[in-house]
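User: Hey, my collaborator sent me this sequence without any context and asked if I could get a structure. I don't really work with proteins. Can you help?
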Amino acid sequence: MDRDRRSRRSRSRSRDRSDYRRGGGGTRSPKRSRRRAPSKWWDVAPPGFEHITPKQFKAMQASGQLPTPTPLDPAVVAQSMGGSNQLTRQARRLYVGGVPFAATEDNLMTFFNDQLTTTGLTSCQGSPVLAVQVNLDKSFAFLEFRSVEECTQALALDGVVFHGCPLKIRRPTDYAPLPGQSQTPQAYVPGVVSTVVPDSPYKIFVGGLPSYLNDDQVKELLQSFGPLRAFNLVKDTMSGLSKGFAFFEYVDSTVTDQAIAGLNAMVLGDKQLIVQLAAIGSRTGGGGAVQLQVPGLNTATMTTMTTPATEVLCLMNMITPDELVDDDEYEEILEDVKEECSKHGRVRSIEIPRPFKGNVNTPGVGKIYVEYFSIGECAKATAALTGRKFANRVVVTSYFDPDKYHRREF
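Assistant: No problem. I've predicted the 3D structure and written it out in structure-token form, which is a compact way to encode the shape of the chain:
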């Protein structure tokens, strides 16, 4: 009994002390409200708009009085995250078709890393290709790159030869482009002929090709006027045979008109070529009399439409710019051409333009101009030299304007 009374008194004194600490005197004081300081992060007005409430600011944006904020570019987000994440993975992969049976994941990765590095298509040091997946049963592979930019630049290697097989490099079907990122390569790789011919003012259509001509034969025909940037011989998807037409574009766009004039209306076997700009669709008339020989064709069945001849003969597909750099080699070529051309008429002069300080784009480089004393002698030389082999290349001939020749407008 005494123990219970002592316990109740102890609890009573404890409550009194607690009340004293909270408010003093055993009675609680009313709780005072404290004003919250303005937030440092929410609804912070831009400089100059501190006097406007958030609601008024939004109303001004909605009415067009203020510019609306621009959403953050996903490409910027991807770049800030290092580019090696799931967000950019679909934009960092490429499909590679035509893969030979000798391909493995290791040698494909080594090949593309070397190609991208040596051609200057990488953005930084290290290996641009991170992973390779090969399906030999269906002859294709997938490449994954470390960055979106290098993946796009690798499209410039479309048509590159790997173990004797040209590779087709494409975007995969699940490709998801990133806003603000270029979708086409900005570089050209010398010696690589792309199998994709994009629409451009210099895209050329050629129709009427015999179906028995393969890619290499058609390309040799077209490359008589200059190196190709892109070429696509359209084929039947079931049989794989040529449909008789193709699209192509030259590295040097200035030779486009000359190639159209020289190739249009040419007769190959029992067919006549139709060559015109693909974008315009207007048929271009034939220019100079161009006669070509393609391996596998009978020259007796290959003729061209005749046009007025001149006393200046232009020889093409005989030399390369590299062969003209060395003085001794240049003189040897000059003497060899002069000796052979003199067998068919009196040669007045010969011009072989050379690269100026290593510039292969010097007008006329890669061509040989031979001036005869008469048109008859030039015509005789044209008939004799067309289709001949020089340095294992098929000789292509064309008449050239004498006035341009004397003004050296090659």
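In plain terms: The mean pLDDT is 77. You can pass these tokens on to your collaborator as they are.
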